[in-house]
Specification:
Blueprint: E1 11-14, E2 31-36, H1 40-43, H2 46-53, E3 58-62, H3 71-83, E4 88-93, H4 95-107, H5 117-120, E5 131-135, E6 147-152, E7 157-162, E8 170-173, H6 183-201, H7 209-231, H8 236-249, H9 263-275, H10 279-293, H11 295-308, H12 316-333, H13 350-361, H14 374-383
Parallel strand pairs: 1-8, 2-3, 2-4, 4-5, 5-8
Antiparallel strand pairs: 6-7
The chain binds 5,6-dihydroxy-NADP and zinc ion.
């Protein structure tokens, strides 16, 4: 096992009816900015629950944060924070609203010339405006980590940011919110969480038995509950398992003491930036090709994954190959397509474009061995057409 330090300060509040507990978590004298997305919370009852819980607070609202939170929209929210002397942020939404809120938590205290620098220059946020979240969509794990991904349509970019100052103070996980989540987003959530585990597992063995089993158990649970939740999102037990899997997949725990990859996400973000494909679907497009291309270096973990997660038997090399196929089939079972050409007709030239972008950014060695060059990336993206 590799050396590590682990600190995660987010208080997780799980359970049916827990939104009512909001007032216990936010300082009574806070001037709160309530942030939300395109309005689903107004039709599924979550907005009303939040407002009722915070009846005694001084609240300003900002809605309209789009999926793949857009920089220009967030700048409008930043003006509201400054004009209204906001002291506390509350995100009510999925990964996009939570990530947008993290950007604002950072930008509110940022003194540099242009907040985009936080993303383009990878400026770590040591201290941000305090914020909490009410999660409405299990998927990203953003509710218990310190990272965010922000989109800028003007330049067709999607960039990451983070730092210890960006953990939510608390996150409320009420499994009942899953009832209103559309099929497309349920499938996205399962796929995203599954791929988060793969990014932190599908590398090479370092003798970290417990981390391996944490990872495998999350994947096994997701495989087990996927058909249940797709069939009936109102199944509160399955919804709770789904939520907790998504949170645990990316709250830092399973990546401690092991190598991590994250190249699938790096390539996937470019597909969202260029073609506006849902985040999870970009991962399903890239992951199978990534594992096939890097088969030699990932072979041992692929075999272990095939044996333990999919119950495959036979010669190790064959198990490893079949494990990639089973992963692809799992995505298909969620009605997620795994080829770029199934999402856009204009895919020619994508691989070259991504190769160029990574070269320009100096991303010359991705993956657990820091050896995946922009040329390798180009081949993987081509394999995903
Ligand atoms: O906008 P509203 O009206 O809220 O509707 C949303 C949105 O249309 C809807 N939705 C959410 N909860 C709902 C609901 N509809 C009905 N009932 C509910 N209870 O779902 C749609 C998608 O929401 P979004 O927040 O965009 O989805 P998700 O949670 O998948 O977040 C995706 C974003 O997170 C980033 C992605 O790149 C993408 O921008 N990620 C963030 C990560 C992180 N911070 O750690 C890691 C991930 O790898 C990912 O990159
Ligand atoms: Zn993801």
């Amino acid at each position: 096992m590799l050396n590590f330090e682990f600190k995660n300060p987010t208080k997780l509040i799980f359970g049916t009816g827990k939104i009512a507990q909001l007032a216990q978590e936010i300082p009574a004298d806070a001037r709160v900015l309530l942030l939300y997305g395109g309005g689903s919370i107004k039709t599924n009852g979550i907005y009303d629950q939040v407002k009722a819980a915070l009846a005694s607070y001084d609240i300003v609202e900002f809605g309209g944060i789009p999926a793949n939170p857009e920089y220009e929209v967030l700048l409008q929210a930043l003006s509201v924070i400054k004009e209204q002397s906001i002291t506390y942020l509350l995100a009510v939404g999925g990964g996009s609203v939570i990530d947008g809120t993290k950007f604002l938590a950072s930008a509110a205290y940022y003194t540099g010339p242009e907040p985009w620098d936080i993303l383009s220059q990878s400026i770590r946020t040591e201290h941000g405006m305090p914020f909490g979240t009410v999660l409405t969509l299990p998927a990203t794990g953003s509710e218990m980590n310190s990272g965010a991904v922000i989109t800028r349509a003007e330049t067709q970019e999607k960039r990451s940011m983070g730092g210890p100052g960006l953990f939510p103070a608390f996150s409320i996980l009420d499994p009942q919110v899953v009832r209103s989540v559309p099929q497309r987003q349920l499938a996205n959530g399962i796929t995203d969480a599954f791929t988060h585990v793969l990014e932190q597992y599908m590398t090479y063995p370092v003798g970290a038995r417990l981390q391996d089993r944490f990872a495998e158990s999350i994947m096994q649970t997701l495989i087990e509950i996927a058909p249940v939740i797709m069939q009936n999102p109102a199944d509160t037990d399955a919804a709770g398992d789904f939520m907790y899997c998504c949170t645990m997949a990316l709250n830092g725990l399973i990546q401690k003491g092991v190598p991590t990859d994250w190249a699938v996400h790096a390539m996937g973000h470019e597909l969202t930036a260029l073609y506006n494909i849902d985040h999870a679907r970009t991962l399903a497009i890239i992951a199978p090709s990534h594992y096939r291309y890097n088969f030699r270096t990932k072979r041992e973990k692929l075999t272990q994954y095939g044996q333990r997660v999919w119950g495959l038997t036979g010669p190790p090399e064959e198990v490893a190959i079949r494990a990639i196929g089973r992963t692809e089939e799992f995505f298909h079972s969620l009605d997620i397509k795994t080829k770029l050409s199934q999402y856009t007709e204009n895919y020619e030239g994508t691989a070259e474009r991504i190769e160029e972008r990574f070269t320009e950014r100096g991303w010359l060695g991705l993956g657990e061995h820091k050896s995946l060059t922009p040329q390798d990336v180009r081949t993987i993206v081509e394999m995903s057409y």
